[in-house]
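Practice problem: predict the structure.
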Amino acid sequence: MTSSIRGFRAAPRRIAVLSVHTSPLEQPGTGDAGGLNVYVSQTATEMARRGVEVEVFTRATASDQPPVAELAPGVTVRHVQAGPFEPLGRDELPAQLCAFTSGVLRTEAFHEPGHYDLIHSHYWLSGQVGWLARDRWSVPLVHTAHTLAKVKNAALAEGDKPEPRTRVIGEEQVVAEADRLVANTAVEARQLIDLYDAEPHAVHAVPPGVDLERFTPGSRHAARDALGLADDDVVLAFAGRIQPLKAPDVLLHAAAAMLRRRPELASRLVVLVVGGPSGSGLEQPQALRELAVSLGIEAQVRFL
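Answer:
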């Protein structure tokens, strides 16, 4: 980012991060918790390491959640009450944006003007809140979409529902209002420009990084031993939220095809499915288990 952003300070002291529908404190892999959670958690932590105070606003989903929790040194998570103390589907959350925005604005009102130097919103629901807060606080709005409705609708998986028109309109509004749009890839940057008429100068592709302390070569034997796998097992794995868009069924069909061609692998083949139902997968939480049975590979598939 450069000083050309309206109201931008070269070295922001405090950033308000908006993540309405999912908290960086949640375990990725189930419900709506996934890559976005990791992205918010890791970028916030890294900014704090560089001396920037970060406050993440997310919706409270349980009555016993503290109003403020520490994610990492310099990073706090604020649980905003907006709607019932329970998880809500993303299609239910637009009705709670007014309450959520009120909570965000009320928090800032307890401080001196200029408390936040920058707003970074994640996903279109947060972008709607960020748009209003940006105008109220007169600070720049940076937005990361993470996924785009028009792109998802153009490549729907079988059994998946198209994203609603409400989301498409909401995304168009946020794209038009944000001072900067951060895309994860050059392809996504082009999609924002071509499909949403984003101003090219406002779009920046910033590839996500990798935590090389966590994702580094280790002991293959120790990893297999921890999972109860033999050294000569043939292992196929899916890790992520279980929903049609991510196509975990492809792995099961591939495993069944392997056994048809190599039946001698039946005693050694292990298919690991790691994650929980999410999105439209919540409507058929047993669908993948039933598929394994119908393909005759239930003995090889383990759901973790």
